[in-house]
Design a protein that fits this description.
Largest sheet: 7 strands, mixed
Structural class: alpha+beta
Helix content: 40-55%
Protein name: GNAT family N-acetyltransferase
Strand content: 25-35%
CATH architecture of the largest domain: 3-Layer(aba) Sandwich
Number of helices: 10
Order of helices and strands: EHHHEEEEEHEHEEHHHEEEHHE
Domain N-acetyltransferase: 38-182
Pfam family, one: Acetyltransf_1
Number of domains: 2
Keywords: Transferase
GO molecular function: acyltransferase activity, transferring groups other than amino-acyl groups
Shape: globular
Low-confidence stretches: 243-249, 252-261, 279-287
Mean pLDDT: 86
CATH topology of the largest domain: Aminopeptidase
Length: 287
Protein backbone atom coordinates (compact mmCIF):
# COMPACT_ATOMS: atom_id res chain seq x y z
CA UNK A 1 0.00 0.00 0.00
CA UNK A 2 1.50 3.33 -1.06
CA UNK A 3 0.49 6.60 0.59
CA UNK A 4 0.75 9.43 -1.94
CA UNK A 5 0.52 13.13 -1.06
CA UNK A 6 -0.38 15.54 -3.87
CA UNK A 7 0.07 19.30 -3.43
CA UNK A 8 1.59 20.42 -6.76
CA UNK A 9 -0.78 18.81 -9.22
CA UNK A 10 -2.67 15.55 -9.08
CA UNK A 11 -2.56 12.27 -10.96
CA UNK A 12 -5.67 12.29 -13.23
CA UNK A 13 -6.52 8.68 -12.35
CA UNK A 14 -6.33 9.43 -8.62
CA UNK A 15 -8.59 12.43 -9.17
CA UNK A 16 -11.26 10.50 -11.06
CA UNK A 17 -11.18 7.48 -8.75
CA UNK A 18 -11.41 9.72 -5.68
CA UNK A 19 -14.47 11.46 -7.11
CA UNK A 20 -16.04 8.11 -7.99
CA UNK A 21 -15.46 6.80 -4.46
CA UNK A 22 -16.83 9.97 -2.85
CA UNK A 23 -19.95 9.94 -5.03
CA UNK A 24 -20.63 6.33 -4.01
CA UNK A 25 -20.68 7.56 -0.39
CA UNK A 26 -22.74 10.69 -1.13
CA UNK A 27 -25.38 10.25 1.63
CA UNK A 28 -22.62 10.48 4.26
CA UNK A 29 -20.90 13.37 2.50
CA UNK A 30 -23.71 15.95 2.32
CA UNK A 31 -24.89 18.05 5.26
CA UNK A 32 -28.55 17.12 4.78
CA UNK A 33 -30.20 13.77 5.47
CA UNK A 34 -30.53 11.83 2.21
CA UNK A 35 -30.94 8.06 2.38
CA UNK A 36 -29.47 5.68 -0.15
CA UNK A 37 -32.95 4.99 -1.55
CA UNK A 38 -34.11 8.62 -1.59
CA UNK A 39 -35.39 10.11 -4.87
CA UNK A 40 -32.97 12.96 -4.09
CA UNK A 41 -29.89 10.72 -4.13
CA UNK A 42 -28.85 11.99 -7.61
CA UNK A 43 -28.82 15.53 -6.19
CA UNK A 44 -26.53 14.49 -3.34
CA UNK A 45 -24.26 12.69 -5.79
CA UNK A 46 -24.14 15.75 -8.05
CA UNK A 47 -23.27 17.97 -5.09
CA UNK A 48 -20.35 15.76 -4.06
CA UNK A 49 -18.99 15.47 -7.59
CA UNK A 50 -19.27 19.19 -8.31
CA UNK A 51 -17.70 20.28 -5.03
CA UNK A 52 -14.89 17.71 -4.98
CA UNK A 53 -13.99 18.13 -8.65
CA UNK A 54 -13.81 21.89 -8.16
CA UNK A 55 -11.51 21.43 -5.15
CA UNK A 56 -9.22 18.87 -6.81
CA UNK A 57 -8.75 21.07 -9.86
CA UNK A 58 -7.10 23.57 -7.51
CA UNK A 59 -4.38 21.16 -6.33
CA UNK A 60 -1.17 22.94 -7.29
CA UNK A 61 -3.05 25.52 -9.39
CA UNK A 62 -1.64 28.52 -7.51
CA UNK A 63 -5.00 30.24 -7.12
CA UNK A 64 -5.00 33.64 -5.41
CA UNK A 65 -8.28 35.23 -4.43
CA UNK A 66 -9.66 37.78 -2.01
CA UNK A 67 -11.24 36.27 1.09
CA UNK A 68 -12.92 38.78 3.41
CA UNK A 69 -11.13 41.52 1.51
CA UNK A 70 -7.65 40.02 1.93
CA UNK A 71 -5.69 38.48 -0.97
CA UNK A 72 -4.92 34.86 -0.08
CA UNK A 73 -3.32 31.77 -1.59
CA UNK A 74 -6.05 29.13 -1.86
CA UNK A 75 -4.34 25.75 -1.54
CA UNK A 76 -5.79 22.25 -1.78
CA UNK A 77 -4.09 18.92 -1.15
CA UNK A 78 -5.07 15.28 -1.38
CA UNK A 79 -3.60 12.19 0.24
CA UNK A 80 -4.32 8.93 -1.56
CA UNK A 81 -3.78 5.32 -0.52
CA UNK A 82 -3.03 3.24 -3.60
CA UNK A 83 -2.91 -0.55 -3.57
CA UNK A 84 0.03 -1.25 -5.87
CA UNK A 85 0.44 -4.91 -5.00
CA UNK A 86 -2.01 -6.17 -7.61
CA UNK A 87 -1.37 -5.97 -11.33
CA UNK A 88 -3.53 -2.86 -11.69
CA UNK A 89 -3.08 -0.06 -9.11
CA UNK A 90 -6.31 0.52 -7.18
CA UNK A 91 -7.39 3.49 -5.07
CA UNK A 92 -8.01 2.30 -1.51
CA UNK A 93 -8.91 5.67 -0.04
CA UNK A 94 -8.26 9.40 -0.02
CA UNK A 95 -8.37 12.54 2.14
CA UNK A 96 -8.90 15.91 0.45
CA UNK A 97 -8.00 18.92 2.59
CA UNK A 98 -7.48 22.68 2.54
CA UNK A 99 -4.88 24.50 4.66
CA UNK A 100 -6.68 27.18 6.66
CA UNK A 101 -5.91 30.84 6.00
CA UNK A 102 -4.21 33.23 8.45
CA UNK A 103 -2.75 30.49 10.59
CA UNK A 104 -0.04 27.83 10.45
CA UNK A 105 -0.09 24.00 10.44
CA UNK A 106 -3.88 23.89 10.48
CA UNK A 107 -6.16 22.39 7.82
CA UNK A 108 -9.77 21.46 7.20
CA UNK A 109 -10.63 18.05 5.74
CA UNK A 110 -13.25 18.35 3.01
CA UNK A 111 -13.98 14.89 1.63
CA UNK A 112 -12.51 11.58 2.75
CA UNK A 113 -13.36 7.93 2.20
CA UNK A 114 -11.96 4.41 2.21
CA UNK A 115 -13.22 1.88 -0.34
CA UNK A 116 -15.36 -0.88 1.24
CA UNK A 117 -12.87 -3.63 0.34
CA UNK A 118 -10.10 -1.87 2.29
CA UNK A 119 -11.93 -0.89 5.47
CA UNK A 120 -10.78 -2.17 8.85
CA UNK A 121 -7.13 -2.27 7.77
CA UNK A 122 -5.94 1.00 9.30
CA UNK A 123 -5.65 2.74 5.93
CA UNK A 124 -7.50 5.87 6.99
CA UNK A 125 -5.24 6.24 10.03
CA UNK A 126 -2.15 5.95 7.82
CA UNK A 127 -3.44 8.70 5.53
CA UNK A 128 -4.37 10.83 8.53
CA UNK A 129 -0.89 10.43 10.03
CA UNK A 130 0.60 11.63 6.75
CA UNK A 131 -1.60 14.71 6.93
CA UNK A 132 -0.90 15.33 10.63
CA UNK A 133 2.84 15.37 9.95
CA UNK A 134 2.29 18.70 8.17
CA UNK A 135 -0.95 19.86 9.75
CA UNK A 136 -1.28 18.62 13.35
CA UNK A 137 -4.39 20.71 13.94
CA UNK A 138 -7.26 19.40 11.82
CA UNK A 139 -10.96 20.10 11.52
CA UNK A 140 -13.73 18.27 9.70
CA UNK A 141 -17.45 17.60 9.80
CA UNK A 142 -19.05 14.17 9.78
CA UNK A 143 -22.33 12.38 10.33
CA UNK A 144 -23.36 11.66 13.91
CA UNK A 145 -22.73 7.95 13.35
CA UNK A 146 -19.06 8.56 12.54
CA UNK A 147 -18.30 10.62 15.66
CA UNK A 148 -17.02 7.63 17.72
CA UNK A 149 -14.60 6.65 14.94
CA UNK A 150 -13.15 10.15 14.71
CA UNK A 151 -12.92 10.40 18.49
CA UNK A 152 -10.70 7.32 18.47
CA UNK A 153 -8.50 9.15 15.96
CA UNK A 154 -8.06 12.16 18.25
CA UNK A 155 -10.90 14.46 17.14
CA UNK A 156 -13.37 16.04 19.55
CA UNK A 157 -16.91 17.30 18.83
CA UNK A 158 -17.10 21.09 18.79
CA UNK A 159 -20.23 22.34 17.06
CA UNK A 160 -23.00 21.56 14.61
CA UNK A 161 -22.41 22.10 10.89
CA UNK A 162 -25.65 21.56 8.99
CA UNK A 163 -26.77 18.03 9.86
CA UNK A 164 -23.17 17.08 10.64
CA UNK A 165 -20.97 17.35 13.72
CA UNK A 166 -17.98 19.69 13.46
CA UNK A 167 -14.90 18.09 15.03
CA UNK A 168 -11.28 19.11 15.55
CA UNK A 169 -8.06 17.75 17.02
CA UNK A 170 -7.48 21.11 18.79
CA UNK A 171 -9.08 24.57 18.72
CA UNK A 172 -8.98 25.79 15.12
CA UNK A 173 -7.37 29.07 14.23
CA UNK A 174 -7.64 31.03 11.00
CA UNK A 175 -10.49 30.71 8.53
CA UNK A 176 -11.53 28.16 5.96
CA UNK A 177 -12.96 28.80 2.52
CA UNK A 178 -14.90 27.07 -0.20
CA UNK A 179 -17.87 27.08 -2.54
CA UNK A 180 -21.44 27.49 -1.32
CA UNK A 181 -25.00 26.86 -2.41
CA UNK A 182 -24.87 29.51 -5.12
CA UNK A 183 -22.04 27.60 -6.80
CA UNK A 184 -24.14 24.43 -6.75
CA UNK A 185 -27.33 26.10 -7.97
CA UNK A 186 -25.46 27.39 -11.02
CA UNK A 187 -23.53 24.18 -11.70
CA UNK A 188 -24.73 22.24 -14.80
CA UNK A 189 -24.29 18.88 -13.05
CA UNK A 190 -26.49 19.97 -10.15
CA UNK A 191 -29.06 21.53 -12.45
CA UNK A 192 -29.30 18.37 -14.56
CA UNK A 193 -29.77 16.26 -11.43
CA UNK A 194 -32.66 18.47 -10.32
CA UNK A 195 -34.28 18.23 -13.73
CA UNK A 196 -33.85 14.46 -13.83
CA UNK A 197 -35.52 14.12 -10.43
CA UNK A 198 -38.47 16.26 -11.53
CA UNK A 199 -38.86 14.28 -14.74
CA UNK A 200 -38.66 10.91 -13.00
CA UNK A 201 -40.79 11.60 -9.94
CA UNK A 202 -43.15 14.37 -11.04
CA UNK A 203 -45.43 15.57 -8.24
CA UNK A 204 -43.75 13.21 -5.77
CA UNK A 205 -40.65 15.40 -5.98
CA UNK A 206 -42.16 17.88 -3.54
CA UNK A 207 -42.77 15.10 -1.01
CA UNK A 208 -39.15 13.96 -1.37
CA UNK A 209 -37.86 17.44 -0.56
CA UNK A 210 -40.27 17.71 2.38
CA UNK A 211 -39.04 14.39 3.77
CA UNK A 212 -35.41 15.42 3.37
CA UNK A 213 -36.06 18.69 5.20
CA UNK A 214 -38.00 16.97 8.00
CA UNK A 215 -35.33 14.30 8.43
CA UNK A 216 -32.65 16.99 8.47
CA UNK A 217 -34.47 18.98 11.17
CA UNK A 218 -34.76 15.82 13.26
CA UNK A 219 -31.07 15.08 12.85
CA UNK A 220 -30.18 18.65 13.83
CA UNK A 221 -32.17 18.22 17.04
CA UNK A 222 -30.30 14.97 17.74
CA UNK A 223 -26.94 16.66 17.17
CA UNK A 224 -27.83 19.63 19.38
CA UNK A 225 -28.86 17.23 22.16
CA UNK A 226 -25.63 15.25 21.72
CA UNK A 227 -23.46 18.37 21.88
CA UNK A 228 -25.31 19.64 24.95
CA UNK A 229 -24.76 16.32 26.68
CA UNK A 230 -21.05 16.44 25.88
CA UNK A 231 -20.84 20.03 27.16
CA UNK A 232 -22.55 19.05 30.41
CA UNK A 233 -20.15 16.13 30.84
CA UNK A 234 -17.17 18.42 30.23
CA UNK A 235 -18.39 20.86 32.87
CA UNK A 236 -18.74 18.07 35.41
CA UNK A 237 -15.20 16.89 34.68
CA UNK A 238 -13.94 20.45 35.01
CA UNK A 239 -15.55 20.84 38.41
CA UNK A 240 -13.62 17.82 39.61
CA UNK A 241 -10.23 19.02 38.35
CA UNK A 242 -10.20 22.83 38.48
CA UNK A 243 -9.61 25.40 41.14
CA UNK A 244 -12.14 28.21 40.82
CA UNK A 245 -11.57 31.83 41.76
CA UNK A 246 -13.90 34.49 43.05
CA UNK A 247 -13.62 36.60 39.91
CA UNK A 248 -14.82 33.72 37.74
CA UNK A 249 -11.61 32.62 36.04
CA UNK A 250 -10.12 29.18 36.51
CA UNK A 251 -6.80 27.37 36.35
CA UNK A 252 -5.97 23.72 35.97
CA UNK A 253 -3.17 22.59 38.27
CA UNK A 254 -1.32 19.66 36.71
CA UNK A 255 2.15 18.57 37.76
CA UNK A 256 2.68 21.90 39.52
CA UNK A 257 2.04 23.87 36.33
CA UNK A 258 -0.64 26.45 35.70
CA UNK A 259 -2.85 25.90 32.64
CA UNK A 260 -5.75 28.27 32.02
CA UNK A 261 -9.03 27.40 30.41
CA UNK A 262 -7.84 29.62 27.56
CA UNK A 263 -6.49 27.35 24.78
CA UNK A 264 -5.51 30.40 22.73
CA UNK A 265 -2.99 31.52 25.37
CA UNK A 266 0.52 29.98 25.58
CA UNK A 267 1.61 28.72 29.00
CA UNK A 268 4.09 31.53 29.61
CA UNK A 269 1.48 34.18 28.89
CA UNK A 270 -1.03 32.29 31.00
CA UNK A 271 1.20 32.30 34.06
CA UNK A 272 1.89 36.02 33.66
CA UNK A 273 -1.81 36.72 33.15
CA UNK A 274 -2.88 34.90 36.28
CA UNK A 275 -0.08 36.33 38.40
CA UNK A 276 -1.12 39.83 37.35
CA UNK A 277 -4.88 39.55 37.35
CA UNK A 278 -5.97 36.62 39.49
CA UNK A 279 -3.65 36.75 42.47
CA UNK A 280 -4.37 33.09 43.16
CA UNK A 281 -2.93 33.13 46.66
CA UNK A 282 -5.65 35.60 47.73
CA UNK A 283 -8.57 34.59 45.55
CA UNK A 284 -8.37 30.82 45.65
CA UNK A 285 -11.60 29.17 46.73
CA UNK A 286 -12.21 25.43 46.71
CA UNK A 287 -14.60 24.63 43.85
Amino acid sequence: MEIMHFTNGINPLVMEESIKLAVSEAPAMVATVVDGDSPLLPLAEAEVEAMLRDALRMVGAGVRQRVDGVLADLRVGIIAAVDDEAGQPCLAGFIQYKPRLRTERTATIGYAAVAPAYRGQGIFKKMLNELKAQYPILGLDCSLELVPMYERLGFRPEKRQGAHVGMATAPLGGVTWGQGQEFLDNHPLYQRAKERIRTTHGKATRDAYAKRDADTRKRIEEINAFLQLRADEARERAKASRAYFEDGCACIHTDKTLQPCRPDMPDAEAVAFYEQHCKCSRNYVEG
